[in-house]
Amino acid sequence: MIIVMKKGFDENQLRKVLERIVELGANPFPVSGREQTTISVVGPTHEIEERAFLGFEGIEKVVRVSKPYKLAARLAQAQPTQIKVGECDIGDGSFLVMAGPCSVESEEQTLRIAHAVKKAGATMLRGGAFKPRSSPYSFQGMGAEGLKILKQAKEETGLPIVSEVMDIQQLELALDVVDMLQIGARNMQNFALLKELGKVNKPILLKRGMSATVEEWLMSAEYIMAGGNSQVLLCERGIRSFDNQFARNSLDLNVVPILRELTHLPVVVDPSHGTGYRHLVSPMALAGMAAGADALIVEVHDRPSEALSDGPQALLPTDLDQLMLKLSQMGDILGKRVQTSQTAKQNSEGAKQNKVA
Ligand code: PEP
Ligand code: MN
User: Fold this and answer.
1) Predicted confidence (pLDDT) per residue in 248-268, tens digit
2) Most distant CA pair in the chain: distance in Å?
3) Which residues have C-beta under 5 Å from ligand 2, the single-atom ion?
């Protein structure tokens, strides 16, 4: 159930509505936007009738939401959710690229690649310290040591960090270093972890499970939001289909415009895991932007044949240079500004100067 407040309602009217919702045994989540304030009512709303709010001043309408996700629903919030990570803005209508190695493998490797992706124009650094591997015999990530290296890369480049956690213990370790927590495809429905993420004050990059429906994916976002963390980004990373002969997964770009209709949350595309092969990554990255994504997350390695994970799908730094150029040209056509490490900096300096003036 969503309650839309009238324009010009006052705080007292809002307070009375919130109190009424609690009296009725549900939880209110008010969202104040520029245009409109809405209250998402979650809990046993099937037991609450619309007329329970008759006579309350300041209410424009009470709308029943038939979808199982409420807080993530487009109806719950008129404006798209904008997420700030360091100096980067995601969901504000511009576009950005997060890039870096699949895994943190050593200090030298991570710093080399971090500098290369910054030079290419990426505005966030990705890199896994904790790796979900199909085989227990494969490289499992550097763990806490890897986090220290990411911290150093952030200090050296200024790039905010996105990195995966797979359990609550790792989450606690990562909170100090990581600016955006990645929840991988394999943990999209790790409900205990999702509940913990609800208590965290950091953006969550929630990857789509490899066979998850859009509704299951949005329900996982709902778990995090219901816990109190509304900073969720949805990342399409390819789904399993019947044919993996030429691509590791099928990058489902249908979901980009679909999610735009269903939710106010930002949408990110991962063409690296979505395809599995270097030569497919840039075309599908451009397609992701054309479909309307807010950002890309791309794997880059300067020595892919030596990579400890996902080498075949890693772009070379020069490939990323080219891709950034093409994205910027396509951005001109689409009317989307591509943030780069340089412009992101200039913009925030410009904004600071405006504030001072
Ligand atoms: C990764 O980002 O390296 C990763 C393991 O992603 P996914 O969960 O999408 O497979
Ligand atoms: Mn990977």
Assistant:
1) 999 999 999 999 999 999 999
2) 69
3) 102, 310
